[in-house]
Amino acid sequence: MTRLLHVSASPRGTASESLAVARTFVDTFAATRPDATIDEFDLWDGTLPGFGPAAAAAKMAVFAGETPSGEGAAAWEAARATFARFDAADRYLFSVPMWNAGIPYVLKQFIDVVSQPGMVFGFDPEQGYSGLLTGKRAVVVYTSAVYGPGRGRAFGSDFQAPYLRDWLAWAGVDDVEEIAFRPNLVTADAEAGREAAHALARDLGKAL
Predict the structure, then answer these.
(1) Spatial separation of the C-alpha atoms in residues 60 and 200, rounded to whole Å
(2) Is residue 117 a contact partner of residue 125, using CB atoms and an 8 Å limit?
(3) Nearest CA to 167 among 179, 157, 180, 176?
(4) Which site in 51, 161, 169, 186 is 20 to 30 Å from 175, CA atoms measured?
């Protein structure tokens, strides 16, 4: 059975452009595959665990071949549970607004929680990292209100898409489609770009 996980990084609800495009994708995906399971993971719903000192100590213990204990054991179990939810899907949808040229901090928190040895990646002292999430497919919705290709340095830089592309590839997810809606707030007409983004969302919702 196909399982889709929608990882939502926007806190803006119905006002969010990234969530609106993602909703078009999800509705089309669900209509195309009525037997699919769809899991909506709102990163702002309070269930995402932190990754502080205890969790960091647990990660280094695992790297050293040891078993986390005490507070570290509880933090590691929370990370494992979050990863299990992530790994249960074979299709991913990420809705990602641009924040200060990058990604929302809650998405970086999610990445830091699940990116653990033996979960998202393997490591060999001679060969380096290897991604373990092979065979999965992803669609990423990128939005930004000021930055856009060709607008010049005064309109910002893009550390949003390159970061997520690199992380997905590092994790082993190499089948990735992107939808970008980047209207410029100083222009009045964003509707053409919005329509194009939703049209692509419908096409990918049928194909993924």
Answers:
(1) 42
(2) no
(3) 176
(4) 51
Tell me the H-state helices in the chain: 17-32, 53-63, 71-87, 105-114, 161-171, 191-207
Q: Is the whole model's pTM more than 0.90, yes or no?
A: yes
Token pair, residue 23, equals: 């909703």
How far is residue 60's CA from residue 158's CA, in Å, rounded to a whole number? 32
pLDDT digit string (tens) for 97-153? Answer: 999 999 999 999 999 999 999 999 999 999 999 999 999 999 999 999 999 988 889
For the domain made up of 3-207, give the CATH fold.
Rossmann fold (3.40.50)
Q: What is the 3-state secondary structure (H, E, C) of 177-196?
A: EEEEECCCCCCCCCHHHHHH
| DSSP at 160 | S
| Residue range 165-194, pLDDT digits in tens | 999 999 999 999 999 999 877 665 788 899
For residue 180, report the phi and psi dihedrals to the nearest 5 degrees.
Answer: -120, 125
